[in-house]
Specification:
The structure is a single chain. With 207 residues, the chain is mostly helical. It has one domain. The protein is built from nine helices and no strands. The chain is elongated, with a radius of gyration of 19 Å.
Length: 207
C-alpha cells in the first residue's frame, strides 16, 4: 500500500515515516522526551494519520509511542537525578538558585510534582524537561513513573485517536489546539504559583 500524503506541517516527516515506520515513531518520541529538540508530537500525529489511512496499525503506534515516551522521560529523570543536583549546587547561585531555595523547590515538587508531570506532557517545553526537573528535585521515582505514565497514556491516546479519525483535517485541529496552548501554560503557571505561595505562607506561619 502506498504512503498517503501528509498534510501541511506534517509533510516533511513523510520520507522518514514512510521509510522507517514504527521505528521512526519510537525513536523520535523517545529522544524528544529527554530534552533533544525533536518533533515527537508532530511525528505522533503523522503516524496517527498513517494509521487512519491503513498504512500503520493504530494500536501498534499507540503502544510504541507510549513505551518510547515513558522510557525517554525516565532517561531524563536519570540524567536529572545523577547530575542535576551537583549542577544546581555548583552553578545555581548565578541564577539566584541558592541551596536553600533549591531545597524548598525540591520539597514542593515532591508534594505536587505528580500534577505537574501529568500536565507537562501536553505543554511544549515542559514535555521535554519534566523528567530532568523531577530527577533534579528528587521526586520519588515510583511516583514520577506513575504520573508520567498517566500523562503519556493521555497524550498518546489523544493524538493518535484524533489524527487517525481526522486525517487531512488534523492540521486545522492541531493549529486550533496550539492556539489555545498559551492559555493552558498560563493556567498551569497560575496553579503552580498558587501552590508555591501557599507553601511559603505555611512555612512562614510554622516559624
Amino acid at each position: 500500500m502506498s504512503s498517503p500524503p501528509l498534510p501541511g506541517p506534517l509533510a516533511h516527516l513523510e520520507p522518514l515515516l514512510g521509510h522507517y515506520g514504527y521505528w521512526a515513531v519510537g525513536a523520535v518520541v523517545f529522544v524528544e522526551d529527554f530534552g533533544v529538540p525533536a518533533p515527537g508530537e508532530t511525528m505522533l500525529i503523522a503516524a496517527g494519520v498513517y494509521a487512519g489511512a491503513g498504512r500503520l496499525n493504530v494500536v501498534a503506534v499507540g503502544l510504541i509511542a507510549f513505551a518510547a515516551a515513558v522510557a525517554g522521560d525516565n532517561l531524563g529523570y536519570l540524567i536529572g537525578r545523577v547530575g542535576g543536583r551537583a549542577f544546581v549546587h555548583r552553578w545555581g547561585r548565578f541564577v539566584f538558585l541558592t541551596p536553600k531555595r533549591f531545597e524548598a523547590a525540591e520539597g514542593f515538587f515532591t508534594r505536587h510534582g505528580g500534577k505537574i508531570v501529568t500536565v507537562a506532557r501536553f505543554v511544549e517545553g515542559l514535555r521535554q524537561a519534566n523528567g530532568i526537573i523531577a530527577g533534579t528535585t528528587g521526586m520519588h521515582w515510583r511516583r514520577f513513573l506513575a504520573f508520567n505514565a498517566l500523562g503519556a497514556a493521555l497524550w498518546v491516546g489523544l493524538w493518535t485517536t484524533l489524527a487517525s479519525l481526522a486525517g487531512d483535517h488534523i492540521t486545522a485541529i492541531y493549529d486550533e489546539i496550539r492556539r489555545y496552548q498559551l492559555y493552558v501554560v498560563l493556567g498551569v503557571a497560575v496553579v503552580i504559583t498558587g501552590f508555591v505561595v501557599r507553601h511559603l505562607v505555611r512555612r512562614h506561619r510554622a516559624r
